[in-house]
Amino acid sequence: MTPPGKRPGPPARLSREAIVRAAVASGDLEALSMRELAARLGVSHSALYRWVEGRDGVIDLVSEAVIDKIVPADPPAPDNWRDWLARLAWAAHDEFLAVPGYATRVSRPHRHSRAFTTMQDAVVSAFTAAGASPRMAMHSWYIFGTSLVTWLGAQEQRLMGDAPVRFDLFLDSLLRGLPATDPPTEGRRPTLPAKPASPEGT
Length: 202
Prior knowledge:
single chain; 2 domains; mainly alpha; 9 helices; globular; Arc Repressor Mutant, subunit A; 202 residues
């Protein structure tokens, strides 16, 4: 019996791990509804909402589980930062695409969970180890993170056609340009040459 003045807690069968397992097993995270997830868990719709605040909360839990598997346990160092980022990127490739609908979801504009902050901090530390200034390390994170997540979302949606660009080629090209450095014309667009005047009568 619940003590007076204390709200009943969530059913014992609900947990972070159970919610993540049920969401991943749904077959399409992008299309999963809260009612469907509650049914999969064998709980009421309201009971599920005591654990998560809607679909964004479910995505956050999945992100935490996914990113836990992505960030290497060893810290990046000046002599291995590029290999460290490659390991992180390949792990992201495998884990994002292992959950149907996940890469598509996170590649679209949305509020990112604290799990992505963990990933951001780790990647920034890799670019710092490479010798980038704090400012350039943060710019490099945005380039790396946005490019990686967008590529994986496009891969899942098959927007690249039947023969998508190989991930190893994409990753090699991406890492060759990082960490970012200040260009000599920072913040300025190149000036286009003026069009030649048309001869009269043409």
